[in-house]
Every structure is written in structure tokens, then in C-alpha cells.
Predict the structure.
Amino acid sequence: MNRIKKRLTILNAVIEAMIKSPETVKYPFGDLTLPEGYRGKIEFDPDKCSGCGLCVRDCPAEALHLNKKSREEYTLLYYPARCAYCGQCEDSCRHGAISHSNKLVGATTHKDDWVLVFKDSKASQE
Amino acid sequence: MDKISIPIGPQHPLLKEPLSMMVDIAGEKVLGGSLRLGYVHRGIERLAQQRTYVQNVHLIERICGICSHVHTTAYCYAVEALLGIEIPPRAQYIRALMCELERIHSHLLWLGILAKHIGLETIFMHTWHDREMALDIMEEISGGRVSHAANQIGGVRFDLDEEHGDMIRGILKKLHSQVDGLLDIIETEPAAIARTKGVAPISSDLIKAYGVVGPVARASGVDIDLRRDAPLPPYDKLQVKVVTHPGGDAWARTYVRAEETRVSLNLCEKILEDLPEGDVSLRTPRRVPEGEVIIRSEAPRGELFYYLRSDGSDKPARLKVRTPTLAALSLLPVQLAEINVADIPVVLAGVDLCIACADR
Ligand code: SF4
Ligand code: SF4
């Protein structure tokens, strides 16, 4: 009896495997849905940033860099290749300027030159 | 017969992580072996002294790729103890939920590896598929599949809502039936029994002499589990059932882990049921008062030990981590003696080594 039950379980698994769609997605051609709270690509809202540097202080991977001349004049740089996508900057920022989106992260062949200027206070004043 | 020494590792198809072993054999019999460690030493304890307490949460998470959450849990409880704060009960329960999910996926991963080593590829495929279900839950609630970043000093980073609860309960139910099937195979499948029963037995005296912990110790009849013996909150309220087996062989180790998976599934359900209302985190100061603390926590592989000393600054003065794998490793050469060459993979897989944890 047990043997028959076992055989049936296996048969069940085989049939299930034959009819269900593949587990993998042919990214980027297939449609990939990531969970709502997935810690993916970092998005930045320059208007909200005050240049306080809290995110830079807490970033464990030194992926953020603040060049500060004065309260008004500063640039915030981001090095995606160093980022660990840990979510600390999002937590530390009191102004909600920096956040994770649920999109996949980019890629590069020159990781050292990959710098994004998150905020250049001069450029945003012009 | 002449003695031959064969090197296994540091890079070897048998091993998932770098570990070097010299195994002495004579014909089909293994005479003994010796070990070399340190291939994935990253100096994390030293690095931790150069980073702030907040940054360290993410560094500590990277000690291990399987039990990353329990490391940060132990670390955060240590920092919170020095700060003299108690995190909200809801945060404690969410931490425990993640710990149990981690145990489930860690044990399923291990069962898969063992099955693969003894030639049961189908079981390997099934357990790894099931493990993915547990990881799906963790990804959905925390945002990361392996590096969950769930803990922060003062609580956890996310909250659960009703929708999460339903999703988790649904997946747990499916996992329950899968684990039942798995236990049935372990107990009745002749091929699984033949390759594990009586292989590389460890006596409980040997376990105690070498200080081995976790499922390996419990499979030799040593009844220890920190979730019951020295519980961190909220385990003191959860009545954990400790699974033991007197067998001491590879089969007993398999059985204990599979049964523990079932216990963890029940615990997850209990945690969801009892989940208290309230906040999930507290604001904490950046500087930690002078002092030292020891925190012990039950990781999937056994007792995890954290020692933390603070000099009053925002960086730890010393952080010492002792992982369960270290003790299990010291027992390997003893276990290898007097077995057949074909059983080497069973012995190696049987102790569920995590070299990255042990080397740090
Ligand atoms: S996600 Fe983490 S590593 Fe990346 S920039 Fe933010 S704090 Fe730094
Ligand atoms: S992103 Fe936020 S934390 Fe970082 S400098 Fe701007 S305001 Fe401060």
C-alpha cells in the first residue's frame, strides 16, 4: 500500500513538472516581478536632500561620498559598484531623499568609473 | 597495504567552500585525516573594530551566506544589552520568525546536499525547490533573499501586515506536506537508509569531549538547544521542542534535521499566531556605554557565541565570534578514521560545515 502511495506521489510530481511553466524568467525579455519591498536599484530625489551627510556616515560600503564646501554648496556622489544594497542609507536619511526601488540593479564593465552624481547643489540652483 | 595520502581541496567538487584535507587511505579503508583552514578568512572581527555599530550590522550579516540573520540577531542583542534597552516585543517575534525561516532553509539546503552526495538527485532537486519557498517568504518580507538586512540596533526594519501573514501561512502549509514526504523517504527509502545507517557514528562522549553543538550533538543523544536552555527573547515564551536521537550515525543526523525543520515550521506558525501589536523599533544612541557582554544564540548549526566589548565610543573595542562549525571541524579527522572511501562524502556532508562562518 505504502509503495503504491509512493509511486503515486512521484507520478504526481512528474505530471506537475510537465504542465507548469518554467521557474526561471528569460530576463530581460521575460517579465520579472520582484516583491514590493525588494531592495533594488537606488533612487534619489535631489529636491529633498539637504546635504546633511547622515547617509554617507552610515553607509557600510563607502558607496556614498559628500563633497561639502558650505551648507549650500555640495555634491553627493554615489558609486553603484561598491553598493551592498543594504538599505542603511534609506534608513538613515531623515528627509526621504534616498530610497530603494524594486528594480534590478544595473551593470558595468568599468566599475571604478561608475559614479552617479546624486546631487550637485550648483546645478540644481541654476 | 601501503598507505596513500590524498589531498581533498581547497578547491574540490565535493566541497562547496574552500577547505583543505589530507586523507590517508589504505585500499578502500580510510585511516585518518588532517585539516587546514583559513581559506576564506576575511578578518571580519578586526574590520568590525574599525566601523561604527550601525555599519557593523551589515558587515556581520556577511559572515555567512546561509545563517546571516542569526549573526546579526546575536550582534544586535549584544549591542542592545550594552545600551541597556529592551526592544519592543513585536520586533523580538519578527526576529525569531526570521531565525526559524533561516533554520528551515538551512536544513533543507543541507538535506539536499546530503542527498546529492549519496546519489539521490531527485531528493536534492525537491529539497532545494522547497528551500526556495522559505527564501521567497524572507525576500518578500525583508527585501533580500540572502542578505535580509532585517535587524537594526533597536529592533527590526520592517513590519508585517495581514497580507504577509496569509502569504506566510500559505507557504508554510505547503512546506509542511513537503517535509512530511521528506521524512517518509528518510525513514523508509532503502537507498537512503543503506547509505546513512551506521555510517560514521559519533558517541555522545566524543561530542562532549570536543564541545560539538547543534544538530550533530542532538543526533548523538546530547540534549542541548539554547532556544530552550538559555533562551533569548521571545523563545522563553515559545516552548521549543528539542529533537534528539540516540543513533549518532549519519542517518540520525539526517532524521534530526528533518524533524527540526518540522518543529521550526510549527514555531513559525506559533509566532505568527502570538505576534504582539506595537512598534518594531526604537531609536538608539550612536555611542555605546563602556562594558562587555556575551550573547549566545541557537543558529541552524548550533550554539553561536558573541562577545562584545565597548570603550564608550561609537565603534566596538573588540568583537569575538565563535561559530558552531569550528567544533564540528575538529571532530572531522576522528570521524574519518575507519570508514570506507565511498563514505567520505557522507561524513563531510553530514556535519553541515559552514567554512565561511568558521573562518570569518
Ligand atoms: S544601500 Fe547600503 S551600501 Fe548602498 S549606498 Fe545605501 S548604505 Fe551604502
Ligand atoms: S540623502 Fe538624505 S541623508 Fe543623505 S545627505 Fe541627502 S538628506 Fe542627508
Observations:
- Residues A 59-61, 63-64, 83-89 surround iron/sulfur cluster (ligand 1) (CB under 6 Å).
- The mean pLDDT of chain A is 81.
- The longest strand of chain A covers residues 64-68.
- Strands of chain A lie at 42-44, 64-68, 74-78, 98-100, 116-120.
